[in-house]
Amino acid sequence: MRKKYLQVAVSAALTVVLAVGTVGCGKKESASNQENSGGETITMKLALVDPENSNYAKGANAIADEVEKATDGKIKIEVNAGGSLGGERDTVELAMSNNLDIATCANSVLTNFIPEMGILDQAYLWTNAEQAHAAVDGELGDLIKEKAEAQGLHVIGFMESGFRNTFSTQPIESVEDFKGVTIRTMENKYHQAAFTAFGAMPVAMNYNDVFTALQQGTIDAAENATVNCLASGYYEVTKHITNTQHAFVYIVLCMSDSAWNKIPEDLQQPFLDAVQKGCEAQREYLVEANTEAETELKEKGVEFHDIDVEELQKAYKAEAEKQGFTFDEKWQEAVDKAIETTK
């Protein structure tokens, strides 16, 4: 009797294994032919270093909603916020090797792979957000996409963290107040040149070390979007924010080649249009978040200071000429066009 039961159990197990194997094969075949069949839902993972309660995650979820709606649920995006899939450069490299569907990163990270993108790292490149948008939504964006494809990436959209300001332990209200100030910046020669021009001492430092460095007096200041002063708790140790508006930062959405090739041809444009709508929504969320953050920061005792931005611009321009910064002619023309068309 025990032997009979064993035979039945083995037979049943083999049936299950074969059934699972058949289903698995069916899925594999369908996935490789999705562009033709259009039968299965395509689910893609998007990596984001910012927390789930940030305006960036809210924007990424808006992108996911727009994509699902525009493709009648045939394409879904799963947002993985909080750096759960790795840092920005790590996730870009994962996308390059087709091990992640969509990476997001600051434009300065992509400069490591696309040197021409250094043009976006300049201080005081744009005087307003409209110019910044016109550039990446126009010819400059096309140049970036073309170069990215050579790296195995499809740039599908541009979110942003916008203009950056200066957070400091002591008030900074004029260029003279920058003299002798040690400030944390990204490891970016253009940003560092700007603060050198102002008379400060820029120091490249890991983002996660900034709060402690400010608290211990290792540095006197940092710079970032206003909303990040609140989100990162800098307001506890820096009670002054100066509206330097010295740099504009984009958050670029980079899709792997294999993920792009899964999208049926008839859904590619609706997909891109939906991503653009989501990016535009995030830009609005950022404006709202910065406004709300300023109000909350003031309630927490943070003082905001205006400064002569034209004087800072002149100082940076002189330093840039001194260091001999030059950029690809075609890319410079695209930047100039964006500025000219938004005057």
Automatic annotation (TrEMBL):
UniProt key word Signal: yes
One GO CC term, this protein: outer membrane-bounded periplasmic space
Keywords (A to Z) from UniProt: Receptor, Signal, Transport
Protein name: Tripartite ATP-independent transporter solute receptor, DctP family
Localization annotation: Cell envelope
GO terms of biological process kind: transmembrane transport
Family listed: Belongs to the bacterial solute-binding protein 7 family.
Signal peptide: 1-19
NCBIfam families membership: dctP, TRAP_S1
PANTHER family, sorted: PTHR33376, SIALIC ACID-BINDING PERIPLASMIC PROTEIN SIAP
